[in-house]
Specification:
The structure holds 2 protein chains of 2 kinds. Chain A is built from no helices and 11 strands. By secondary structure, chain A is mainly beta. Chain B has strands at about 5, 10-15, 20-25, 30-35, 45-50, 55-60, 60-65, 70-75, 85-90, 100, 105-110. In chain B, strand 4 (about 30-35) and strand 5 form a beta hairpin. In chain B, the strands form 2 sheets. In chain B, strands 2, 4, 5, 9, 10 and 11 form a 6-stranded mixed sheet that branches. Chain B is mostly beta strands. In chain B, about 0% of the residues lie in helices and about 55% in strands. Chain B has no helices and 11 strands. The chains are: A mainly beta, B mainly beta.
């Protein structure tokens, strides 16, 4: 079974621009979560989607948004980029429905904001 | 707000030695995960601990969970260089939200 895939793997943007990151979950997984990882703040939860609905959101400004499509693929968007948005963005998928609901992480998208 | 604290944050040890990483958390949860991260890479799942008293072992790593003490441990036995990485614990607080510890950067020297 293929793992979680994320595209692109690397991005360089300038302040004020916007960016869209994509995540394809493991086949059969309907839940997709997004996390931001920075050296200063560590790993922080952004949001989670299940069946095209956002079920949970972390403490991030409204510039961070996401969506999920009917095939469970998810995108996240960051508008008006700031230098502090430079980070590794990880998405994770889980099956939902079993007792474990373990999250499996993709390789990440490394975003650099100049 | 839930806090997840790992210690130590940095650990340098010699091959062949044993050591333990601690993960304390501040709210009730009976679901805890351990992940490994190599530099520039994503998170690799190591253990899923689902109940009080759970103990899982894989090779030289063993993880345990004490939900009453809100404590999980990751024990390394007879460390080898390949185990050098950053290890994270993460507490599941529901709705697929994981709260991560700060990570423990483990360096194993020959």
């Amino acid at each position: 079974k293929a793992g979680v895939t994320q595209t692109p793997r690397y991005l360089i943007k300038t302040r004020g621009q916007q960016v869209t990151l994509s995540c394809s979950p493991i086949s059969g997984h309907r839940s997709v979560s997004w996390y931001q990882q920075t050296p200063g703040q560590g790993l922080q939860f952004l949001f989670e989607y299940f069946s095209e609905t956002q079920r949970n959101k972390g403490n991030f400004p409204g510039r961070f948004s996401g969506r999920q499509f009917s095939n469970s693929r998810s995108e996240m968007n960051v508008s008006t980029l700031e230098l502090g948005d430079s980070a590794l963005y990880l998405c994770a998928s889980s099956h939902q429905g079993g007792p474990i609901n373990e999250q499996f992480f993709g390789p990440g998208t490394r975003l650099t904001v100049l | 707000e839930l806090k997840v604290e790992q210690n130590p944050l940095f650990l340098s040890m010699q091959e062949g030695k044993n050591y333990t990483i601690y993960c304390n958390y501040s709210t009730t949860s009976d679901r805890l995960y351990w992940y490994r991260q190599d530099p520039g890479k994503s998170l690799e799942s190591l253990f899923v601990l689902l109940s009080n008293g759970a103990v899982k072992q894989e090779g030289r790593l063993m993880a345990s969970l004490d939900t009453k003490a809100r404590l999980s441990t990751l024990h390394i036995t007879a460390a080898v260089h390949d185990l050098s990485a950053t290890y994270f614990c993460a507490v599941d607080i529901g709705a697929q939200k994981l709260v991560f510890g700060q990570g423990t950067r483990l360096t194993i020297n020959p």
